[in-house]
Amino acid sequence: MKLEGYEFYEKVLKSPKYIVAPMVDQSELAWRLLSREFNAQVTYTPMFHAKLFAENSKYRKENWVYNETDTPLIVQFCANDPQCLLQAAKFVENDCAAVDLNLGCPQHIAKRGHYGSFLMDEENWELIASMVSLLNKELKVPITCKIRVFPEVEKSIRYAKMLENAGCQLLTVHGRLREQKGQLTGIANWEQIAAIRKAVKIPMFANGNILYFEDIERCINETGVDGVMSAEGNLYNPALFVPESYASWYLAEKVIDFRKLTFVVSTDL
């Protein structure tokens, strides 16, 4: 039986607080294993393009790489078509803890492809709900979502509750606007994250402003979330999730060691 909500968070994910974000060209297997050595408890794959993943076996073989120690693992897709997303997710449902829908990518390529944060506009909410609902009904594993916030906290709350009602079993909130990227990145809004946390009943991760180990507990205390996800902070320091400090050369050697791994399971899809 597929577990949902906090049962999924506690029994499958093992109540994690330290999460490595999905990062294009970064959160591949070697980086995920390195991060796990330094106390990362859940990792995400890079964002996969659902249509390419569903239709192109070469794309799947090049990108879907994992091994048995890389668990719990959540596979993230970007998509704008429910059936295409389901088809892609079916290829991985037996080898991951959950499938995540990317609703937060702010890059221009996402605007051109009409996915990620460019589905945030309210005119697309019915489409988003249909994708989440379909995967919630048809997948063996839970569907989770990662979002950004709106300028108006009330709209952010409505957006989050729409996802929850559609069947999202865990929500990650990046406390930045769609426009906050590159030189305009700025500071993530933890107050919005806290407001959303109070409004939804499913488990929730916070994303944004996590640069040091001390930021993790501060974020959890200020927002009430269940765990904290890091992207850039983890890239700067893969030992972010432990209080100890390590020399850069030592971490660099670790990266090289993990990239030499040969015992990798790759799908034959």
The side-by-side strand order for the widest beta sheet comes to 1-2-4-5-6-7-8-9
Number of helices: 12
Query: Which percent bin holds the helix content?
Result: 40-55%
> What is the radius of gyration?
17 Å
What's the overall geometry? globular
Query: Pairing-aware structural class of the strands and helices?
Result: alpha/beta
Q: What's the SSE pattern?
A: HEHEHHEEHEHHEHEHEHEHHE
Unreliable stretches covering 5 or more consecutive residues: 262-267
Distance between the termini: 25 Å
Mean pLDDT: 93
Number of distinct beta strands? 10
What does this entry look like structurally?
This protein is of the alpha/beta class. Helices cover 41% and strands 17% of the residues. It is built from 12 helices and 10 strands. The strands form 2 sheets. It has an 8-stranded parallel β-barrel with strand order 1-2-4-5-6-7-8-9, surrounded by 6 helices. Strand 4 (73-78), helix 5 and strand 5 form a beta-alpha-beta unit. Helix 8 packs across helix 9 (190-199). The model is unreliable at 262-267 (pLDDT under 50).
Q: Any key phrases for this structure?
A:
alpha/beta, eight-stranded parallel beta barrel, single chain, 41% helix
Topology diagram in text:
Blueprint (H helix, E strand, L loop, with lengths): L4 H8 L5 E3 L8 H9 L4 E8 H6 L1 H7 L1 E2 L6 E6 L3 H9 L7 E6 L4 H6 L11 H14 L4 E6 L4 H14 L4 E4 L15 H10 L4 E4 L5 H11 L3 E4 L1 H5 L11 H12 L5 E2 L3
Parallel strand pairs: 1-2, 1-9, 2-4, 4-5, 5-6, 6-7, 7-8, 8-9
Antiparallel strand pairs: 3-10
